[in-house]
Specification:
- By secondary structure, the chain is mainly α.
- It has one domain.
- 55% of the residues lie in helices and 0% in strands.
- It contains four helices and no strands.
- Helix 2 crosses helix 3.
- The chain is globular, with a radius of gyration of 18 Å.
Amino acid sequence: MSSTARRSGIFKLFLDWPMSLTDAEQAAFTEFATDVIQFHRGLVEAKLICGDANMDTDLAMEVVDEVNENLNLDDLTEEPFTRVQSLMIKAMARLYPLPCK
């Protein structure tokens, strides 16, 4: 398969790209999303960030997407958390700061 765009444009090239997730990728996403939602709920309940601890599916996926987009790999790892957990918590602190509006 050629990697050059056809005359119909680059958009169609992406439409033809195989987009199926592997089992490992799907498991990794599920683990990441679950961690984001659990940490978000815990931080809201502890009044460390703003937000709603009980989210519907659409809002939960929005939070997961926002956290994913706002991860900063330059953030330091904070004990006792893992590297990924530290990055998620710091992203949430930036996205949903106190005081709540």
